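Hello,

Following up on my earlier ticket. Below are the three sequence lines again, exactly as submitted.
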Amino acid sequence: MENAELLQLAIAGLKNGSIYALLALGFTIVYAATNVINFAQGEFFMLGGMFAVFAFKTLGLPLIAAVPLAVVAVTGVGVLFEVLAIRPRRDGDQMSLVIITVGGSLVLSSLARHLFGSDALPLPEFTPGPSLAFAGAAIERQTLWIWGLVLIAVVALTMLYSRTRLGRAMRACMQNREAARLMGIDTGRVVMISFALAAMLGALAGVAVTPLTSTRFDIGAGIAVKGFAAAILGGLGNPIAAVAGGLLLGLIEQAVIPFSSTLKDVVAIVVLLSVLFVRPQGLFIRERKEKT
Amino acid sequence: MSMLSVRGLTRRFGGLTAVDNVSFDVYEGTIHAIIGPNGAGKSTAFNLLTGFDTPDAGEVRFEGTRVTGLRPHRVTRLGIARTFQNTQLFDSMSVLENVLVGTHWHTKTGFLRAALHLPGVRAEERDSRELARHHLRLVSLEHLADVPARDLPHGQRRLLEIARALATRPRLLLLDEPAAGLNSAETGQLAGTLYRIRDMGVTIVIVEHDMGLVMDVSDEVMVLNEGAKIAEGPPRLIQKDPAVIEAYLGGDGGA
Amino acid sequence: MGRRHPTRSRVMAHAGLVAGIVLLALPLVLGDLYLVRIFTLVGINLVMVTGLSLLFGYAGQISLGHAAFFGLGAYTSGFLTRLGWPWVAGLLAGVLVAAAGGLLLALPSLRLKGHYLAMATLGFGEIALFFFTEAESLTGGSDGLREIPAAAIGGFSFDTPTLKYALVWATAALVLLLAANVVRLRPGRALRAIHGSELGAQACGIDTVRIKTQVFVISAGLAGLAGVLYAHYIGFVSPSTFTLNLSLILVAMVALGGMGSLSGAVAGTVLLTLLPYADAIIPGLSRDTVAFLQDWESDIHGLVLILVMLFMPGGIAGLGRQLAVRLRRTSRTAEGGAS
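Thanks for your patience. The regenerated structure is below:
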């Protein structure tokens, strides 16, 4: 294969991969705070695109206002979901919480259908224009937006974790929730903020990618599986590993395309199952024996 | 020959050596206590003896059979039963049903036999129930047979777990802090129950903090500190052992 | 008291049985084909939910991919009978293929805990759906398999709605009866023990991996059986039936009924299956109400999952038990007052 072709595939892989990375971060953040996989994570992604389309088309706002508004609104949905559905059972068993998030996923996607209909909805590119040429390959402008936004999100998140009191509290919860509680950390607040952050990251990914793919009420579950595959590939519970897992998954998907393009959609699931079965702690995390 | 022989048992967690090259023997018909300050490795040792954890080095043999490396249910089937520091009861099931699960491995009704209600199923069920009631009587819980396990107070939960362990027909019974959370009257009754179990021919290893109970019931005491064995012998000698006094008081003196 | 208890529950069971038979005969007596059709679907779902109840409700092992096993059963039997295999052979093959699929998934997954198992089964469901859509030579692709013959035993064909209804419900009743035997005896206790405390179960000498694998395979096989019934009842299968949505509805049925209760699962199945056809049961229900229920079906399923977990973790069965306790208490005070 030509180098330029390879590069083109790599660009596509890193584009999708950075979207998966954001979703994987969302999974990781909620998992760190609650020990639960949030099955509604994909719906935040879907809602991000939906709200942006609504603000842009129906409300007639300019993109520069519609996009941040959508992200903020979805963040609100995340908080609402936590307060209404998670908080009352926060100390419940893992199974109940998992089922609650599954229910949340169903409710959010169905509500989106009632509100926005069942058609695929497009959104214009943030900065329309021809693709940029790079070493024989083409990069869509929107791809640069995606990379930029992902980079900002990751940097901001890193700052949050390393520089702020809240971040330290979240890290403490990640290490050991019980100990964090005993140290006087308000773990309830950490859980709520984790859902807010996860929703925000999901929405950001959704908004950024909708101009390329359009959005529909039922895309949440599919993208959630990919984001989760990325999170589990990297190692659930570690933000850096989640980003690495996302990028890697994006590249693996592209690597399959030359052999079979129909298979691309199941690559993530195959990766997910293989990692779960062979190395459930992820590629980048050293095995840690759970205490009985 | 000893019933349970432990040689060079070692378990590390990261940099911490929870159990450090521990060897000891348990003889049939005795009550053998393992004591030590918090974090001395007692519960880890229990997990290593029962297949819930795998040692990094060392070996456990029960009546000559190698126990290390076996999965927990295989260990139970060799004749070693245990209770847990945090009781592991089946909360949604009745007290009687909890003990019935203890009879599980020496009964044989599987999915197919149960579904088709083949001949013999009814008789086996009846026998199991009778046996389970017998074990409940041993710990004086028979009158609560139909109560959900989750409704039992703390002390009775510990007793139920002992009854369930006995229902597996062990020859060796490992009890992890059976007196924790019991009041003095309950602890007194527990001592009686332990004697009764021993007199049935079941050898007992007990991890316990209650020194009164330990000194009272045990024939042999082993003391762990920071994962290592620092003393063993009959209770009277252990009480006077300078290393033991140091381990227990040293912790207090340092604080 | 220990004696009176089983007798009373036996009386209750017999009463339930009689009520069930009367209810089941009703659509036939009334000759209402719409009712017959809907209740056939209830019967098919019951077979599937009985299996999921053993796995999820009793053993506490969640599966978000049961639609896959339903599909494996439906496609296998549909494919083979179209080739001219007798229905009984198709049935056996369908159940076996679904059970084999269950085994394939169970062996690696059952070491996984709660949410990992949920994700693994969800992933398996998606892969199965992909296979149903893409393996056109076997499954007919997105067009599906058409003209699947009706069930037939020997020369006797179950080709009228009434006969299909009878076949489905005979199967469902048999499956329920067998499952009821399982749950009240030794294997059922092992399942509940695993749910209650896996460590405790292992300490009792239970090979938890083996039991979990067994129940997963049984559960998948029952879903396959339901798939066979479905394929030969509708006569047509296509991928759009075997989606994640279906898997989630099944979970909602078990959860609504209550964990660890077969009768609860039956109630949950009946309620949620009838939901979009409420007009068939409740006479005089307006067309708008029915349309609303159909349109908001998924929202209702999602809400059921959330609300049950939040406010009635025991499900319908839990409510029933509370009611029974309260009734017993009032009757006891009444007795006490009389003497």
